Each structure stands twice: as structure tokens, then as C-alpha cells.
Amino acid sequence: MANSYTTRNGRTAKRGAFLNSVWHCDCEPRMPADKFQVKNGGKNHGRWFYTCQKPQHKRCKFFLWNDDAKVREEAAVLSNSRTEPNVPAPVTPQKKDLPALPPTPQTRRDKKEPANDKHDESFDWSSSNDEELLMVEQDMLEKAPFQTPKKVPRTESLTSPGKRNFMQTTEQTGVADETWPLSDDVFSTPSATHESRGSGLLSPSSTPARRATGYALPEPEPSTLASEALSILSGSRLSLEVERELVDLLNRHDLRTQGIIKGRDITRLAVQAKDRKITELQARISALEAEKETNKRVIAHLKQDIAASPKKGKGRSTHRGQQAEA
């Protein structure tokens, strides 16, 4: 499909213009073009095309298949641009020069041959494409409004990304201006030293954090070891920081000692439980061995009885036989 058409003066110009990644028609000024799909059941059924967004009686003769549009879009991308290079804007010098210049031969020819103008300004395609375009326009008029998800928005320029609400601006400013001052207090929490310089309203949770004085957490009570060490060093002048570090160190050692003591007690209890279990198992073993010896004796006695019983039966049968003979 050709990408140009012939005008009245014999010159050729491309159909439409690819400006800022959006296709525009040949109107003056150019307007974003609409994108539709052919649904007439013909040989071009399912193909997409661009056309003017104005009503049918006011639209220009812009018509461009999507396949041809992709070729021109690729050319623009290869030139590292979002706009098609060397796009001539539609110029109508007749309207500008009409008050000052006499009628041009083109104007006179328009009056004499109105029937041939439509033929001269037609696009460079076959008559079958004209019939298909007519059928497509009829389908579009019957199916109104159009429900195409790929319709180009009717905007002269791209959407500005600078529209943001006040809350988003406040949140971004607040996040950028937050500072976390350093502090030598190891027991303080971040909420006690965190300050926000954002332009938004202050939250209720930040008010007590600013008014809080001293430590955010209560000082741990000194252990017995720490108390004894402080009583020994009571005559010396120690700074609060050194005293705090000393108490913290002694508390850690005291906790470690308490853990060792508890572990020792638990180990002792476990050993005692194992000893009791061993004693129970040994007693059970002794009982099973005694039962085994008893069973052996019973079995031996039964074997003796079985061995002696046939002899007694044989003697009785012999005595009965002698009595019968007598």
C-alpha cells in the first residue's frame, strides 16, 4: 500500500503525520486520528486502520492501514525520535491568499469541473479499497458508539505527568526531609530522637517524643554485684556515662553467672532423674532374671514327670494281663 497520495497541484504528500507517538490526520490543525477495525467480512476483515476523528461529512480524506503505519513508526524509531522526520503540515494557501490575490486557476477549475475534484484528490489505491472503505464507514455509522479499547485519546499533546494531589506532595516532602540525629544514649529509642521537618501536619505520636526528656526506657536496676562494686567506688568521682557502662557490664556478668547456676541445677536434676531410672531398670532386670530361673525349674520338673509317666503306664498294663490269664 502506498504511503502517499496525489494532490491537485500534482505533488505527493504522506497520509497523516506521526507526532509524539500519536498518529494525526490531515486536517488543519492536525488532530489525533481514530483507530478502527474492519468488520465487514471482506478480504480485509480484521485489519486495523487510522482515519479522521471528525464526523463523516466534515472529516478529511486521511486513511492509513495499520501495517503501513507500523513501517513509518519503525522509521521514526530508527531515527531515535518519537516524531516522523520531515512531516509536512497541511497548508491551504488558497484561504490565506484569497482576499489579496485574484482567483487562481485551481479555483476556476473547481467551479467548472466539480465532478473531477473528487477523483483528483482520491488516494492512490484501487476501486475495491474504496468500496471496502465505504462499507466500513457504513458499519461505523450503524454501530455507534464505537467500543474499541485501542482508540487514541483526543488530546493535542501528551498527558502531563506533573498532576499530583496535595497528599502525595506532602508525603514525598515529609520523607525527603526526615532526619535521624545521632545520639550517644544507648538506651534511647528512635522515637525519642526522631524529628520530622515535613510540611504536612504533625501526627499525635510525634508530640510526646519531642516533649520527652531523659531516657525513653527506665534504667535497669543494678544487680547485687553491681551494687557492691558501686559501694566500693562510692568515694571515687565517676561520670554518669562510666557508671552506667560499669553497671551494664556487671549486670551482664551477673546474668551470665545466674544462667550458669541455673544450668548446673537443671543438670543435677537431670542426673538424679537418670539415676532413679537406672535403679528402676536394674530392679526390673533382677526380677526378670529371677522369673527366668523359676521358669527353668518348672520346665525341668515337667520334663521329669513326662519321662516317668510311660513307665508307670506300662507296668499297669502288664499286671492286668496276668490277672486275665489266671
Automatic annotation (TrEMBL):
Pfam families, sorted: Zn_ribbon_GRF (PF06839)
Compositional bias annotation for Basic and acidic residues: 107-122
Instruction: Give the transmembrane region(s).
Output: none
* Region (Disordered) location: 76-130, 143-164, 181-222, 304-326
Q: Name one GO molecular function term.
A: zinc ion binding
Which keywords label this protein?
A: Metal-binding, Zinc, Zinc-finger
UniProt xrefs under InterPro entries? Znf_GRF
Zinc as a keyword? Answer: yes
Q: Which residues form the GRF-type domain?
A: 25-69
Q: What is this protein called?
A: GRF-type domain-containing protein
Q: What species was this sequence derived from?
A: Fonsecaea pedrosoi CBS 271.37
